[in-house]
Amino acid sequence: MSILVIDVGTSGVRGAVVRPDATVEHIHHVAVLPDTPFPGLVEFDPTAMADAVLDVAARSLAEGGPVEAVGIANQRASTIVWDRATGVPVGPGLGWQDLRTVGTCLELQNQGIRVTPNASATKLAALLDLADPDRSRSERGELAFGTVDTWVAWTLSGGRLHITDASNAGVTGLIHVDGLGWSRDLLAALRIPEALLPTIVDSSGVMGTAEALSGHPVIAGMAGDQQASLIGQGCTLPGQAKATFGTGGMLDQCVGPDHPPQALRGPAGTIPIIAWRRKGTITWGVEAIMLSAGTCVEWLRDDLAIVDSAAHSAEVASRCADTGDVWFVPALLGLGTPVWDFGARGTFVGLTRGSGRPELVRAVLEGVAHRGADLLEAAEADSGLPIGNLRIDGGMSANEVFTQALANACGRPIEVSPVVEATTLGAAYLAGMAVGTWADEKDVAAAWAPRHVVDPTTSTGEHAAARTRWLEARRRSEGTIPELSALDF
């Protein structure tokens, strides 16, 4: 049977019907853009998000239904608090990019507690400080907290389900490192009553009924967007990895049933994640993060006006055979894995009078590719598992110059996803495993069929020399703003 998928991203909500042959059909999208009232603050309207969820779901079902189950994929760590009785949010949703709680995170570090400002934990405390400062309403169970998956499940079930899946709970900053439940120590440190929190459920399994939808299909799959993309690209066996190149970049590797060696951030800068939980068993992964990827191409287009569109960047870059030894470090917002330097800044190295528009554009694409190689090498180092080939999705996966540069920088084949956004397939696979459309993780892995494969075109020596030059350029970008470079979360 077919699966309805609701995929809530940072800028909008998408609905689609996924068939048993993994074909994605009847796609509908509604923009729900975040708002930035002040620098560092990112808010969104949860009610508008809920309306968009019901809108796209109804339209996709009207064209492609009936379906047996619903899968949910979502932006992670964004935080919502609402009144249980009315379903009305008590304030704006706080987006995962919101940085208003940096000070709180630094104060917690002095207590030996490490929480990042992009996690839900301190965002939830900030919302409660405004809506329930003495926590009395939360203690009485009048308020509910959720990440976006929780809010979507609440909306689709007509307020009957207050749940989050293990993959989303894992990035709230509020669970035990073993992934087995909420951490009472963290809750106490932030004055968060446990009565406020959703029940943690499997990522794949029948969770309840979508009462708000025609036919009342069951909700059977939920995962954060990066984990959904990992599953959507068939990376369900230990060692397999995918990278998503959108505005930023995320590389996720499946590790298996054992927790990665690091409790928090690994020596190579990756973060352990719960990839998914099925039949009560957690599959772990590691995640490597690039803060600037597609945003660098947007900078070329919108700010420098040297390309007309993201697609045009490939055509311009193709006008030169190489960059002429020009290197670009895509650190417009700092560097994530492996160095985690928030004070690093974007850097061109090697410019000469002969460096022209094609060379600069190609250098930007190749710089993002080398950051992708950084993430791959870090994941291998922290997990101890080799990555034989890398699967990719996201907007930049359609750029042929970039994908070739990525293959060369990584020194291994790149398999391009058949769909640009594999999150939809991942949510469908999770729901489908719960209702029998796909048997298990091995069945999902066997369903992978890349659009095409890009092999490296450089020799081993050329690859090593390029990586050496890249690392030299990257070091020059570090520490540009010492005050920010000193921050560590």
Précis, in short:
34% of the residues lie in helices and 21% in strands. The chain has 16 helices and 21 strands.
Helix content: 25-40%
User: Could you state the oligomeric state of the chains shown?
Assistant: single chain
Average pLDDT for all residues = 96
Integer-rounded radius of gyration: 22 Å
DSSP strand tally: 21
CATH superfamily of the largest domain: ATPase, nucleotide binding domain
Q: Give the number of helices.
A: 16
CATH class category label of the largest domain: Alpha Beta
Level-2 CATH architecture of the largest domain: 2-Layer Sandwich
Number of domain modules: 2
Low-confidence stretches: none
At CATH level 3, the topology of the largest domain is Nucleotidyltransferase, domain 5
Strand order of the largest sheet: 15-16-14-13-19-20-21
Q: Structural class of the helix and strand makeup? A: alpha/beta
The rounded distance between the terminal residues' Cα atoms is: 44 Å
What proportion strand? 15-25%
Shape: globular
Largest sheet: 7 strands, mixed
Your description of this structure?
With 489 residues, the chain is an alpha/beta fold. It folds into 2 domains: 3-225, Nucleotidyltransferase, domain 5, CATH 3.30.420; 234-416 and 458-489, Nucleotidyltransferase, domain 5 (2-Layer Sandwich). The protein is 34% helix and 21% strand. The longest helix is centred in the last third of the chain and has 27 residues, at 357-383. It is globular.
